[in-house]
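Two proteins were folded this term; both appear here.
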Amino acid sequence: MDNAWMLMHGAMRDAPKGLRKGTVRRVYEFAGPHRGKLAVFLLLTMISAVLAVSAPLLAGQVVNAIVGGGAVSTVVWLAVVIAGLAVLDAGLGLVERWQSSRIGEGLIYDLRRAVFGHVQRMPVAFFTRTRTGALVSRLNNDVIGAQRAFTSTLAGMVTNVIQLVLSVGVMLTLSWQVTVLALVLLPIFVLPARRMGRRMADLQRESAGLNASMTTQMTERFSAPGATLVKLFGHPRAELAEFAGRAARVRDIGIRSAMLTRWFMTSLSLVSALAQALVYGLGGYLAITGALAPGTVVALALLLTRLYTPLTALANVRVDIMTALVSFERVFEVLDLPPMITERKNPVAVPAGGVSVEFDDVRFAYPPAEKVSLASLEDVAVLDKRGGDEVLHGVSFRAAPGEMVALVGSSGAGKSTMASLVPRLYDVDGGAVRLSDVDVRDLSFDALRDTVGVVTQDGHLFHDSIRANLLYPRPSATEEELWEAVTRARLADLVHSLPDGLDTVVGERGYRLSGGERQRLTIARLLLAQPQVVILDEATAHLDSESEVAVQEALADALTDRTAIVIAHRLSTIRAANQILVVEAGKIVERGTHDTLLAAGGRYADLYRTQFANQSTAAA
């Protein structure tokens, strides 16, 4: 196994320009769990190579027996042996294919699992910058391309090397003159391969990037909101032209790659045919003069195919290795991007009882692109240099267990940023966010998910049933608990009216439901999760007046004895808050109750007159 890997390492030594160092070593390490299977697979390929060289020798003995007037039984037995070897080789081929499939599919599983698991640990900032199609391409195209290095390239290289060595050795024992003549053309196989590998690797890298771009464009334009945007404001002809341009380049690369490969293989096949003609010429002359037996000439001619066929494959193996190496590099590129938010080795638990929320001199800046993203995943030449500017400046407040704190302020003031720090979607740069006096960075991710529940303005739903979306945060919930959550969210009548009830599929992002229905379903999901801390990021912004009244009643019930951080846009929510924080430019500029802040005549009074006064009139 190690010797075979050294052969592969040698073939990779002259890697294409721009390939990161250490890729080959990492491929070897990644193959660790499959080394036993690979060893068995390579052993089978070695046996197949020996059988491939044995057949020409037996064929030569048959010819000698026929020409020399040998016994009929000798010819028959030789034919039986040849047939037996053919059957054995066919059986080995089936076993090899089975073993190859196990290795290949296992490697695909390992790579996909590693990439998917790693991507799940990435912060939200990673997903706000990364093209979805690029990630999908890494999990599909590049993983399969990397897998070929083991199931096809490595096994083929070992088989061909063994067959080549055995063929040369046997040919030398039969006739060194013919063998030397056959090897004279060997440099023609080696020299083109060195250039071909680099050119093919560059083409493969460009093709992979273009395929990722096409996947991204399709993913975005074929989603419900993307398709709606294109219908309303898009330019279909321009969209088609952009897609067609990338597809045309992929087509051109495919044609060029195919022609380069075909030209290369045709040239090598022509050289092989010329060498065979030389063998027949010199071998025939030696046979006529009595220096060689006729059967030996036939054996040499057949062995020549066992010589040049491996040479042709080995000359092309560099192209295959470079192609696979590019795929491995693209997969490792994702795995090498470290998650910014990690779990402590020994996390602590949230203390029992009611949970308080505290911001202690919190300072925060959104991370720059270089810390959370890759240029290749954003389809840009150079990552955006912006970022790192502080957006929260020394924010401090405390929400006691069971209290509701309302955040108000103009758009972009930092309210949603503050809300995202509690469930640790981002980590603070200074100060601390605490739950019951425990820094959220000291808690496990599971503890955070169990303690903090969030309903955003555009609550997301998966393309799945209502039941599956509700059970996502709490799979163990009973049927009674499901219906209780649905009822409290004022969705029971809707669900009963649907043909499949709770098993009705909501569509991608829940677009088969109205905006109000979709939002009430996300609130029902929150009610089922039963967190101790609830964060509402303008959760009722998309609801009509009737729906809002129903949901507000459900939320009032759900928030009882729970700590709540509410980004408020409704006066009714603000008046119910124990404390109102007025946020401007990343700072808390005012705090207090509705009446005290209104009496103070400051920034809150201005917001009340511009944003909330009309709600008071409408309510009256």
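Next, the second protein.
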Amino acid sequence: MNTELIGIIVSFLLTVLLAFPLGKYIAKVFGGEKTWTDFMKPVERLIYKITGINPAQAMTWKEFLKAMLTINMLWLVYAFFMFLYQAHLPMNPDGNPNMTADLSFNTAISFVVNCNLQDYSGESGVTYLTQLFVITFLQFVSAATGIACLVALFNGLKQKTTNNLGNFWQIFTVSITRILLPLCIVVAVLLAFNGSPASYDGKDTITTLQGDTMQVSRGPAAGMIAIKHIGTNGGGWFGANSAHPLENPNYFTNMVEIIGQALIPISLLFALGFYIKRKKFAYIIFGVMTLGFLCLVIPTVITEIHGNPLIAKMGVAQLTGAMEGKEVRFGPAASGYWSILTTVISTGSVNSMHDSSMALSGLMQILAMLVNGFYGGCGVGILNYFIYIIIAVFISGLMVGRTPEFLGHKVEAREVKIAALVTLLSAFIIKAGTALAAYYVVHHANADWAVKPGAWLNNPGYHGFTEMLYQYTSSNANNGSGLAGLTANNPFWNITTGFAMILGRYLPIIGPIAIIGLMANKKYVPESAGTLKVDSVTFGMMTFAVIIIVTALSYFPPLVLGPIAEYFSIH
């Protein structure tokens, strides 16, 4: 067990050590400084020429959001029809069928918004064509969209007074050519050399040691697995995701994928400090996020190592912890660490079944997605954290009796209202969706016209409620992981979670961009003796307290009905 813990610690330390120089490099890329990837400039100029983009054109926050939302809508329509007619298109050696309209609707939204909630099984639900030219493509552009929106926030913080948040198209393009592609090439090569398939062959028939024959799906998976983690997407080439031996062949690839999914979110924190020249401010945010992460991961690893107390009461020794639903190659500690990292980062990939996690672990996973601001996904993690900062600044201003300021700009009623609206709407999406699903179970279980809840909700009581709560929490957080006891491929879940994913993606992006656009356009206020120091440990702890209070006030009742009640029922 000590070896497993050492593996976890080494993985995290390596992530931070790699993230620091990467953050400095990212700041140089978006600052227009010279970098080793300048050889990509001719490619970028060709893209601008073909698409008619003027990369030097300034954009206000409204123009920036218009460009982002327009192209995202175009990708949504493209993906929907590709999934709907994939069986009639080439590169389908296994003969996989078309998606139904509701599943195509859900899947298209899921990958456009960087959620990657999969209501289908990877190897049998899509073709090689849609895996590569829809899913893998969307995993690149959705991650680049999040990074571009974060850089807009950086630009607003960097300037004293401005209405220019940068050019969306230029930032978006550079995010792919200078950051995502180079990192994915490295990770894909490591995965391919360790056993992840990278060919276009169809299923292979093998003979097991027992003499049975079975078919094993293959395909050019290594590249898609690389961007699924580097871009904090999480969708698996195979249905079992990174618990599949071809998607995650050994402990080395397990560490590569763990490091890969956290690398850009953490490096963007350091990039913030270098870019706006406030490194201490970035370190404070990193410290708060790391504290929050540790508060979630430590209880999870401990409870997974100790295992189920009900089994212990039966007199059965649990020498290996809670192993049901876990990969024996990695063990309960490494699986527990992955489960929190993937929900904190909003990747959503899994190397074990979260439905088999202990009740306390399930609570920690849901809390990670409810907060959605500890590291978070590519770009959007800091955008979510920015909402908490605005609320903390507002409360601090009330406490000292003066108009709150943040980095030289007054935080007034409009900004606070937007922040409050984003927070309240997120809570509404999750709780309203869960309430609707619970109502459906209770009141329409025997209706002739209804999809029988027993067909998709296999666990009664507290855990069944947790499965429904988890599904909407994951959708709203653009996480994409799920509890496998909930069979979600039916019109009810496909449609309702589809709308939850749209709102959960764009509201937390539109809100911060609008706030920084409004603030950056105001007159700069020089710091004085009465200015709130946002790069202090005191303000960091204030923000941490706001996160705890907002999350508790918003979600305590459903958490009590689900994972907390389940925890006490087995103890």
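Residues 537-570 form the longest helix (34 residues). The chain has a mean pLDDT of 90. These notes refer to the second protein only.
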